[in-house]
Specification:
8-stranded mixed β-sheet, 20% strand, 304 residues, single chain, two-stranded antiparallel sheet, globular, Peptidase M14 domain-containing protein, alpha/beta, zinc ion binding
């Protein structure tokens, strides 16, 4: 367990003034426009850029962009890649962009590809798990979502009216999960905080409704060539969840309102990169995310 969080009272959920206090403490630390939108704009020669919404937060306006195959063909299977649902998880955003820059031209021969590289730009700029309303977008992918980030992404994908074969959602598990984000969550909800053991390496979260163990194994095998795979802890768990196979746990993404549950795709995985490891670098974290996407698509090309 960690020390009590600085906002709120023990065992009492936050009220509006607590959320406002939390929001007042958040600061912009990097630029969505400089880091992300500039790269999206540079990809317009390769992919269609589509604005699927705008987030208006206080004095800030964030356009939301999707990148989509230019040569869209209804007879091709469709793949969805999402990043930055949790804006602080940097390699998810830049892994999606790196895949778009270096690999889309190869894979769009086989697939229609949709990339939502940064679903939560305010979270990216403030290095935050939540949006400004203290809502976690990755627990908000359900009808009438309280998070605009989630609602707008779902509306965009629904409007495309296509069957999605595969969805790869790019995330990180960081040391700040225990130092900041889980304590904040417990304080917000008025419950006792219990930190989890941070896995030392990369792992995947499969969907309990469509676990696809061979698909998950193929991704793990590919990622293992660029970044370490997390071993199970002494209880044969990762983040308190039983390990289903090497490097893989399963969640019911639909019931939990996770991004990976937003479609009915039969092949679904959520990546979890560990950027705080002794051997981790920003580049090999990005490479791990790219390896997960390409590993997933290679598997589908060879087996589907």
């Amino acid at each position: 367990m960690s020390k009590p969080y600085s906002i709120g009272e023990p065992n009492q959920p936050w009220q509006a003034h607590h959320k406002q206090q939390w929001l007042n403490e958040q600061q912009v630390k990097r630029s969505y426009f400089k880091d992300v939108v500039s790269q999206i704009n540079a990809l317009e020669t390769q992919l269609c850029k589509e604005q699927y919404g705008t987030l208006n937060y206080h004095n800030s306006c964030y356009p939301l962009y999707a990148l989509k195959s230019k040569n869209w063909q209804p007879n091709k299977p469709t793949v969805l890649v999402t990043g930055g649902v949790h804006g602080y998880e940097t390699s998810g955003v830049h892994g999606a962009l790196s895949f778009a820059q270096h690999h889309v031209s190869h894979y769009e021969k086989t697939f229609n590809i949709i990339i939502l590289p940064c679903i939560s730009p305010w979270g990216y700029e403030t290095i935050n798990r939540w949006n400004p309303n203290a809502i976690d977008p990755n627990r908000s992918f359900y009808e009438n979502s309280p998070a605009d980030e989630s609602q707008l992404a779902m509306e965009y994908i629904t409007a495309l009216n296509c069957d999605i074969l595969c969805h790869v959602d790019l995330h990180e598990t960081t040391d700040t999960d225990n130092s900041e984000f889980r304590p904040a969550l417990a304080a917000r909800d008025g419950v006792q905080n219990h930190n989890w053991n941070i896995p030392d390496g990369f792992y995947l979260v499969g969907h309990t409704q469509t676990p696809q163990p061979e698909f998950q194994s193929a991704i793990i095998e590919k990622v293992a060539t660029v970044t370490p795979i997390a071993p199970a802890d002494a209880s044969n768990q990762l983040i308190g969840v039983p390990v289903e196979q090497f490097g893989v746990i399963n969640y019911d993404g639909t019931a939990l309102g996770l991004c990976m549950g937003m479609t009915s795709a039969p092949y679904v995985t959520t990546t979890e990169v560990y950027p705080d490891g002794a051997s981790a670098t920003p580049q090999n974290c990005i490479d791990g995310q790219v390896g997960a996407i390409t590993g997933a698509l290679d598997y589908l090309i060879n087996n589907h």
